[in-house]
From TrEMBL:
Protein name: Uncharacterized protein
Length: 189
């Protein structure tokens, strides 16, 4: 089973290996790459559907793809403690941009790897610069828009360098106009 094409391209470029390296300053808050632990550790075996996982969060929820929707499946968040799944981003590049926007809105904490306390702003700018060359032109533009917005924030906005209104505008720009993200019950599959 193969990941969608954009995901495969980023795998080939070594992005996920870099993100899983704790010594590396590449990091997205509360997203752990890759998923090496069996799905049964996150979801009860009777509820596992055909999921191609690629990351987990601190709560044990899984980001991945619903196999039935491959090869162009949206990135979906599969909650570990109920049967709800939410499509979050049209593709893996949009997922990364979305997570960086959320990091910029809500900030990171002092235990975030690679981000000293209070330096969310610099981390977001660094991540935009590191990811941009790996992404498609459209996603490169989204990263540039995020970077420009964060750079324009007042200097004292280091922990939360992006206000919610600006962040929501950036998030809205990520979703293709003709795409509606579904929320569904896993038990439907």
């Amino acid at each position: 089973m193969k990941f969608p094409p954009k995901h495969e391209r980023l795998l080939t470029k070594g992005l996920f290996k870099s993100l899983s390296d704790k010594e590396n300053n590449l990091a997205i808050y509360d997203v752990k790459f890759p998923v090496e632990t069996p799905l049964e550790n996150y979801i009860s075996p009777d509820r596992i559907v055909e999921v191609l996982p690629f990351a987990v969060n601190g709560a044990g929820d899984i980001w991945g793809y619903l196999v039935a929707k491959l090869p162009e499946a949206p990135v979906t968040l599969f909650y570990h403690d109920d049967t709800i799944a939410e499509e979050q981003a049209s593709d893996i590049e949009s997922f990364f941009v979305l997570q960086l926007i959320r990091d910029a809105i809500y900030g990171t904490n002092e235990t975030h790897p690679g981000v000293p306390k209070g330096e969310t702003r610099e981390h977001i700018l660094r991540m935009c610069d590191l990811l941009r060359p790996m992404f498609s032109p459209t996603s490169m533009q989204h990263l540039l828009d995020l970077k420009n917005t964060v750079e324009q924030a007042p200097e004292n906005y280091n922990i939360h360098p992006l206000d919610e209104q600006s962040g929501e505008q950036l998030i809205k720009s990520l979703q293709p106009q003709n795409q509606i993200f579904d929320t569904y019950d896993w038990q439907d599959f």
